[in-house]
């Protein structure tokens, strides 16, 4: 494994590989090993030794960090100032069965975003600037503006979610926010998926400012916070802020939804533990042979998709993002064609195969297949930034 300790060293390595046309698997902490299409590369290049906090001014709520810095180090520095990454990046180690340390560069390269994403934005929405090495071995600095000299696209947004296929990240600058001092979660018990979807939608159009909305069907509910949730399915709605505000909003939310089903509130520690487990999809850890999908659809369509699939396949699922994000574990067959067919008939979305055996990964595309226009555009961007095609070949199907 190649582990450069500086941007200059990484640039030299990449330049040499580009000239020799030898491919590189790009990784950070490698905690998402096995995710994406199989990469056949001649060497592995890791950013983990390019580490350290470059600048952090809590008053400005902006942090600049080298890409290989462990997320735990970033979290610790932010916690000292009672601040956080608002997009709640998940830790994939439990569901992927991996070890190592997640890196901040990996978070942005994969655009990892958790339960607060639908109110606070995705990881890429917090990203202000980057430094990276392109496929020619050139160091590039990009801020949050359109870089007209390369493809006419915003490189900051473009690199976020590119999974190391367009460049080797060396540094990221991003916004942070204060940690809410108080948190509680309202739990409504016993709702069917469709009714839960309506309840979450009703909560979101009120003025109570819900920061997390998820539905845990009875089949998975007992796997969260040690089985401490009440009997039946659990529809969970998070409230955060100053103590007096949270209390008033909780009372208002309970009154608005009182006719839907019985409810109770979790204490702060239980609430935080629950949302960490939802974020990290802990209900599906320990089953590496069972295909795990991350499905994004319109919130009103999520329960319809699951209902249709349950008629034809063995699946287990729960909902985040007000029903718009579905974590779906298949019993055996990944059912990719069936899943993507129903997504299309329900108005569109994306299905990403997060975890599967090597045999399944060889047969099923991990990412939603691109149409002809999307594929042509993706290839042009790839050719601009990585003309020799040395970065993570095949990972995203390009």
Automatic annotation (TrEMBL):
Keywords: FAD, Flavoprotein, Oxidoreductase. It is an enzyme of class 1 (oxidoreductase). PROSITE patterns: FAD_PCMH (PS51387). The gene is glcE. Its cofactor is FAD. This is Glycolate oxidase subunit GlcE. One of its GO terms (molecular function) is glycolate dehydrogenase activity. It comes from the Bacteria. Its EC number is 1.1.99.14. It comes from Agrobacterium larrymoorei. Residues 1-179 form the FAD-binding PCMH-type domain. The lineage of its organism: Bacteria, Pseudomonadati, Pseudomonadota, Alphaproteobacteria, Hyphomicrobiales.
